């Protein structure tokens, strides 16, 4: 899942070297914490959160095979 998030986010940002993805796993969910450069936050979130919503939609669609754990994405 980390590779999918990287493949989506890296082309969007101007500072790809500052993209950091941390993973926290709990009983019923996995949370990915995405940290980007301050100038790139708007590019990852998009107007009215459209890009962030699209990224989350792709992650949920990719997770259909492993339905026992829900995937969340936090953009910091």
UniProtKB/TrEMBL annotation:
<dbReference type="InterPro" id="IPR020627">
    <property type="entry name" value="KhpA"/>
</dbReference>
<dbReference type="Pfam" id="PF13083">
    <property type="entry name" value="KH_KhpA-B"/>
</dbReference>
<protein>
    <recommendedName>
        <fullName>RNA-binding protein KhpA</fullName>
    </recommendedName>
</protein>
<comment type="function">
    <text>A probable RNA chaperone. Forms a complex with KhpB which binds to cellular RNA and controls its expression. Plays a role in peptidoglycan (PG) homeostasis and cell length regulation.</text>
</comment>
<dbReference type="InterPro" id="IPR015946">
    <property type="entry name" value="KH_dom-like_a/b"/>
</dbReference>
<keyword id="KW-0694">RNA-binding</keyword>
<keyword id="KW-0963">Cytoplasm</keyword>
<comment type="subunit">
    <text>Forms a complex with KhpB.</text>
</comment>
<keyword id="KW-0133">Cell shape</keyword>
<dbReference type="InterPro" id="IPR009019">
    <property type="entry name" value="KH_sf_prok-type"/>
</dbReference>
<keyword id="KW-0143">Chaperone</keyword>
<comment type="similarity">
    <text>Belongs to the KhpA RNA-binding protein family.</text>
</comment>
<keyword id="KW-0961">Cell wall biogenesis/degradation</keyword>
């Amino acid at each position: 899942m980390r590779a999918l998030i990287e493949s989506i986010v890296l082309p969007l940002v101007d500072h790809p070297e500052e993209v950091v993805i941390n993973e926290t796993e709990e009983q019923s969910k996995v949370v990915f914490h995405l940290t980007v450069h301050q100038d790139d936050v708007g590019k990852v979130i998009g107007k009215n959160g459209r890009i962030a919503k699209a990224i989350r939609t792709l992650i949920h669609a990719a997770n259909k095979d492993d339905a026992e754990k829900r995937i969340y994405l936090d953009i910091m």
